[in-house]
Amino acid sequence: MKTFLVTGASRGIGLETVKTLLDAGARVVLVSRNASEVNLESDRLIKLNADLSADNEGEKIASALKSLGISSIDGLVHNAGTLICKKFESLTLADFESVYRVNVFAVAMLTQALLPFLHRGSHVLGISSMGGIQGSSKFSGLAAYSSSKGALITLFELLAEEFKEQGIYFNSLALGAVQTEMLAEAFPGYVAPVTAPEMGSFIADFVQNGHRFFNGKVLPVALSTP
User: What tens digit of pLDDT does each residue of 48-62 get?
Assistant: First the structure.
């Protein structure tokens, strides 16, 4: 049985990814600040409460996995993210730090902490945004968010190179508009052409199979960007 860990999985795309992986027969570790409150049950589902913005949270997650007898992770989906929609002139250093702490630093530190669980053939997937790709459409108010997603893409390109000899794969998916609470926060009233269950299904399939064809790549997954 394969084991996958998905962060930011208490709602939206993350939760739908978890559901699809469970339907595929996998064991899934659901990580979220309120994981224990998620209304989803399976004997192959493990819920871990974690605040990825906190220091040393990666080590705590690694320790929890060991205590549960988990020694190997086949796929790691970094879905957790945070967004601040604010005009650039109003952004503070604390705003930038809070966004980068979750969208970039926590991804790096959790990946580092979970390296002992990764093996040849493991696939680490970063959920980025079309806003993080050079040359894509950009939108006012998303300076901190979109720049952090660009940093995530570059980080994963570097990690793919650094760990290619070990056979650990790193890819990023740059998502376009998906109907989630985060989208509604950034673009009130906009209706996306893709639902969270549809995108969750795509991500679940990609983390299971995408590394057979890609490594160190960023793939745009977008019908539209608002």
Answer: 999 999 999 999 999
For residue 116, the Cα-to-chain-centroid distance in whole angstroms is: 19
Residue carrying structure tokens 């209304």: 39
Give the H/E segment covering residue 46.
Answer: strand 45-49
Q: Number of H helices and number of E strands within the chain?
A: 7, 7
Give the span between the Cα atoms of 30 and 48, in whole angstroms: 6
Please enumerate, as own/partner, the contacts of 118-122 that have beta carbons within 8 Å and a separation of 24 or more.
118/73, 118/76, 118/166, 118/168, 119/72, 119/74, 119/167, 119/168, 120/166, 120/167, 120/168, 121/74, 121/167, 121/169, 121/211, 122/73, 122/74, 122/75, 122/76, 122/167, 122/168, 122/169
Residues 180 and 197 sit within 8 Å (Cβ to Cβ): no
* pLDDT computed for residue 224 by the predictor: 76
Q: What tens digit of pLDDT does each residue of 175-200 get?
A: 987 877 776 776 788 787 788 899 99
Pairing of strands 169-175, 218-221: parallel
